[in-house]
Amino acid sequence: MDRRAALKKTAMAAGSAALVPSLFSLLQACQKKPRLNWEPIFLTLNQAELISTLVDTLLPRTETPGALDMKVDLFIDVVFAKLFDKSAQQAMIAQMERLNTTCEEKFGSIFSELSVQDREEFLKEQESTSGKYNGKVWGTAVGEQKPVGFYRTLKSLALWGYFSSEEIGKNVLNYDPIPGEYLGCIPLSDIGNTWSL
User: Fold this and answer.
1) Do the Cβ atoms of 158 and 58 come closer than 8 Å?
2) Which terminus of the chain, N or C, has fewer Cβ atoms within 10 Å?
3) Are the C-beta atoms of 111 and 119 separated by less than 8 Å?
4) pTM for the structure as a whole
5) Segments in 31-115 forming alpha helices (H)
6) Backbone phi and psi for residue 174, each to the nearest 5 degrees, phi listed first
7) Among 57, 52, 61, which Cα is nearest to 34's?
8) Residue 74: pLDDT above 70?
9) End-to-end CA distance of the chain
10) 23 pLDDT higher than 70
C-alpha cells in the first residue's frame, strides 16, 4: 500500500470520527426540547412552558433573581392544582389556549416561541386591555369585582409567588423578623427598602 494513500485514509477516518458527534448534536439541537427543569402536577408540558415563559418575561433575572430562579412557575402550577376548583381550572386552561391563539394570529407563533421584543409588546398590550382589581379598604374589595382575565390573574400569582419566597424576602427586601427588638425612634433614612414580613 502506498504511504500517501494510507495517510489520506487515516486523516479521513480521524476527521469523520470528530465530525460524527458534531452532526448528531446539531440534529438534536433542531428538535424542540422543553425548557422545564421540573415536572408539572396540573399543567401539561406545553402549558407549563407557557407559564414559565410568561413569568420569565414579567420578572426576568437582573441584578436580583428572576421569577424562574424563585420557581414561580412551579408555584403557579401548584396553586392551579390545589387552590382552584374545577371550573376555575378549566377557565385558566381555556384562557391559556386563547392567549396562544391570539399570539399565533398576531405574530405567527405561540407565546413561548416569540422573541423577547414580541413577548414584551404582547404583554404591554395585555396590561393596557385587561381588567383591574378593585381597590381595597381594610382587606375588603370596594364594589363588585368584575373578572380580570388570565393575564391579570397570572401576574398577581407571579408577584405573590415571587415576593413571598424566602430568598426575596430575606435578601432583596428589608427583612424584619417579628417579634423583634423595639426601636422607638429611628430616622426615615434608615428604613430603606419595603419591609418584608
Assistant:
1) yes
2) N
3) yes
4) 0.69
5) 45-58, 72-82, 86-107
6) -85, 105
7) 52
8) yes
9) 82
10) no
Amino acid letter at 155?
K
Q: Check: CB of residue 67 under 8 Å from CB of residue 54.
A: no
d(CA 55, CA 39): 17
CA-to-CA dists, residue 57 to 42, 112, 124, 139, 175, angstroms:
22, 10, 11, 29, 26
Which grid coordinates belong to 158?
Answer: 407571579
* Three-state secondary-structure class, residue 86: helix
Number of neighbours of residue 10 by Cβ within 10 angstroms: 10
- Write the single-letter amino acid at 177: P
Would you state the pLDDT for residue 145? 78
Length of the chain: 197
| 8 Å CB contact between 161 and 75 | yes
pLDDT confidence tier of residue 31, bands split at 50, 70 and 90:
very low
pLDDT tens by residue, 111-144: 999 999 999 999 999 988 888 888 888 877 788 8
